[in-house]
Amino acid sequence: MRIAVDAMGTDTSPDTDIMGAIQAAQAYPDDTIILVGPEQHIHAVLATATNQSLTNLQVIHASDVITMADKPAVVGKQKPNSSMHVGMGLVRDHKADAFVTAGNTGAAQAIGMLFTLKRIPNVKRPALSAIFPIYDQPVIFLDVGANTDARPEWLTQFGVMGNIYAENALHIQSPRIGLLSNGEEDSKGTPATQEAAQKLRELPLNFVGYVEPKHILNAEVDVVVSDGFSGNIMIKTFEAATRYLASVLRHEIRGNLMTSAGGLLVRPAFTKARDRMDTFKVGGAPLLGINGVVIVCHGSSPAYAISNAIYQAKQAVAGNVIELITENLTHISTQ
């Protein structure tokens, strides 16, 4: 398998991205990891980063660098030789099986959808996803930002795509699909979610109906469908809440000598809890609906997150996610 990696994606690129690629190249010696970015910079980091020759690690030059400040609406034309353009172009031209980036998410969406891979036939709108571990079980959220608003047919397709990814890349049998809403009753939700719920009920999916945050955090759902506005707020609240909880616990434990001593006793449990909630263990999540496997990571990703995102890309390719989405949406559109 050949996985292209954006060497200029993370906030600390290229060092972090390259170290993640090295970890993956060592972990998966039968696969080829392709670093995409300014060739001179990459080779300079590689020269000091590892003392072993990795024959499955390749470098492909891309002269332009997309920053987090670049506007997605214009970056597609202004930087045609960026690592994102070149990396996704490798997937389009069947010279790579997937592309991993921790760069500007909006730029990745625009370049993937408009300039390189384009949309899968019959896909109304691509969806940006996020994957969080809930009680050691991955839960995929989509959309989390690609579409601020969403029509009923878009939400329905998000459910279909999320189901395929959960089943074939995350290996969840009969994934439970929930539609994010402000209540469980059928009367809740917006007109768009009500219509989408009806459409999802008519499909051969394990649709469990409307879900609220309590259902998600009780591990009662595997795929959470929403518009990008609500989904983005949901995952950012989840991330902020975990950081807040950790901060409060640290503050209270360090409050006095007694609690500090007690904190030493429970430190192993806190370490395990933090490890279980570590989203970097997932690495990244797919941009679903474009015609190729693209895994998007957080800009603050450490090296092991990049390596884990490469594993996520491998799972998506091995699970034939793109082919299955194409087949399923073609079948639904002809019904």
Topology, element by element:
Blueprint: E1 2-6, H1 15-27, E2 32-37, H2 39-49, E3 57-61, H3 72-78, H4 83-92, E4 98-101, H5 105-115, E5 127-134, E6 137-142, H6 152-168, E7 176-180, H7 191-201, E8 206-211, H8 213-217, E9 223-225, H9 228-253, H10 257-276, E10 285-288, E11 293-296, H11 303-318, H12 321-333
Helix pairs in contact: 1-11, 3-5, 6-7, 6-12
What does this structure look like?
This protein has 335 residues and is an alpha/beta fold. It folds into two domains: 1-123 and 289-335, Isopropylmalate Dehydrogenase (3-Layer(aba) Sandwich); 132-280, Isopropylmalate Dehydrogenase (3-Layer(aba) Sandwich). 48% of the residues lie in helices and 17% in strands. The protein is built from twelve helices and eleven strands. α3 packs across α5. The two termini are 35 Å apart. The mean pLDDT is 92.
Q: State the domain count.
A: 2
Structural class: alpha/beta
Name the overall outline: globular
Radius of gyration: 21 Å
Give the rounded overall mean pLDDT: 92
- Report the order of strands and helices: EHEHEHHEHEEHEHEHEHHEEHH
Spatial gap, N to C terminus = 35 Å
How many beta-strand segments?
Answer: 11
Residue fraction in strands: 15-25%
The order of strands across the largest sheet is 3-2-1-4-11-10-5-6-9-7-8
CATH classification class of the largest domain: Alpha Beta
